[in-house]
Design a protein that fits this description.
Largest sheet: 7 strands, mixed
Strand content: 15-25%
Strand order of the largest sheet: 2-1-3-4-5-12-11
Structural class: alpha/beta
Shape: globular
Helix content: 25-40%
Radius of gyration: 21 Å
Number of helices: 13
Oligomer: single chain
Number of strands: 13
Distance between the termini: 22 Å
Length: 378
């Protein structure tokens, strides 16, 4: 069992064992449960239900963006606007230039608000400023964009790294101090990368022997695999006790590299995002854990914020934004930070299955049937 890391001086959500159930979220997204923010402001609406939300997502390698985030935001916007609101969507395919062009298209189309998950948080700042100049509010989604944004929706990303690091030290136990660990960090252009890394190092530094550390351009699994191959050649396959992988896409690439090098038993490997293939690797004993961040909560609340902003509600006082964060260009940004949980083979039922992200049938395909049976997943 992974324990909640203790932190001081920082106001954050704690790690919780079980997140809100899918049924509650679905009821909320269908309007059965009133939004908390629906009664949080007395501001006069600027616009009715006929609104357009621009949604810019960064890549297609991260499975959740296309499969969950976009559909959930689209559904929630529709439910909040009696079917009249729509989402104008574009995916940058990990290209900074393409995302900038897509941002300009959103401005030219005069969308009412833009939700952006930046490929590069610094590079997006001029585009955010152009939207501001055009009178279009911008909400940073999942990654904290620079520039004059109106609000931020994400997770406690430093805590994500802490959960990953703690998973390694807990599993290594008394052997931690003599164990060699490879760190596979995310894209340096993503501000979350530094926070994940900072959180992980708060648990790993001084407790394990970090022998190699790599940044991964654009979070590309191919880059992670190449770097892991280098680490194996340098450190030795049998000498690597654990690999801190910042997300699931890279975790899969790390495991592929280990298999290609001849590994029959995997070292500890972390991940993030609860991708289906990662959950299956956890069932099979190849990946140790992943960080489950409820994108259901993140996406639906981002949609609520976007609609609230267009309708004239002040996000500074919205019940959804009970936190605040600073970026290099802006202080005290209203923020909503969704809690996270360490997902292992012991709590698959109480997390992604309970929340309706996957079914047992999705996870326990023929290839994983025996592994599922072994852990009572049926």
């Amino acid at each position: 069992m992974f324990h909640t890391p203790r932190r001081t001086g920082v106001r954050r959500f704690a790690v919780v064992p079980v997140l809100a159930s899918a049924s509650a979220l679905l009821l909320s997204s269908c309007g059965v449960i009133d939004s908390v923010s629906g009664s949080s402001s007395s501001a006069s609406p600027k616009k009715g239900d006929d609104i357009t939300v621009g949604l810019l997502l960064p890549d297609k390698d991260t499975a959740r963006f296309e499969k969950f985030d976009y559909p959930l935001i689209k559904e929630r916007v529709a439910s909040l606007t009696h079917g009249k609101g729509k989402v104008r969507y574009a995916n940058a395919g990990a290209s900074v230039g393409k995302q900038s062009s897509q941002f300009a298209d959103m401005i030219d189309a005069k969308v009412d608000v833009i939700l952006v998950d930046a490929v590069d948080s610094k590079a997006i700042a001029p585009d955010v400023q152009k939207a501001k100049d055009a009178g279009i509010p911008v909400i940073a989604y999942d990654r904290l964009a620079q520039g004059p944004i109106d609000a931020y929706v994400s997770h406690d990303n430093e805590l994500v790294g802490e959960v990953q690091g703690r998973a390694i030290t807990d599993a290594l136990g008394e052997k931690a101090a003599s164990s060699k660990v490879v760190m596979m960090n995310g894209d340096p252009g993503d501000p979350n990368t530094a926070r994940f890394k900072e959180g992980a190092l708060s648990e790993l530094k001084g407790r394990v022997n970090i022998v190699k550390s790599y940044d991964t351009d654009k979070w590309l699994p191919s880059v992670a695999k190449a770097n892991m191959t280098k680490a194996i050649q340098s450190v030795g396959l049998g000498n690597i006790a654990a690999v801190y992988s910042a997300n699931d896409g890279m975790a899969g690439a790390v495991i592929d590299a280990l298999k290609s090098a001849g590994a029959t038993k995997m070292p500890l490997v972390t991940g993030q995002d609860a991708n289906l293939d990662a959950v299956q690797r956890i069932v099979a004993g190849e990946q140790t854990m992943t960080v489950y961040k409820s994108f259901l909560l993140e996406a639906t609340n981002a949609a609520e914020m976007a609609v609230d902003k267009v309708k004239g509600k002040s996000l500074e006082f919205d019940a959804l934004t009970q936190d605040s964060v600073d970026s290099p260009t802006q202080k005290a940004i209203p923020a909503m930070l969704v809690p996270v949980v360490a997902l292992t083979k012991n709590n698959i039922k109480s997390t992604v299955i309970k929340d309706g992200v996957y079914t047992v049938k999705d996870i326990c395909t023929a290839k994983y049937a025996a592994d599922c049976a072994a852990i009572g997943l049926k």
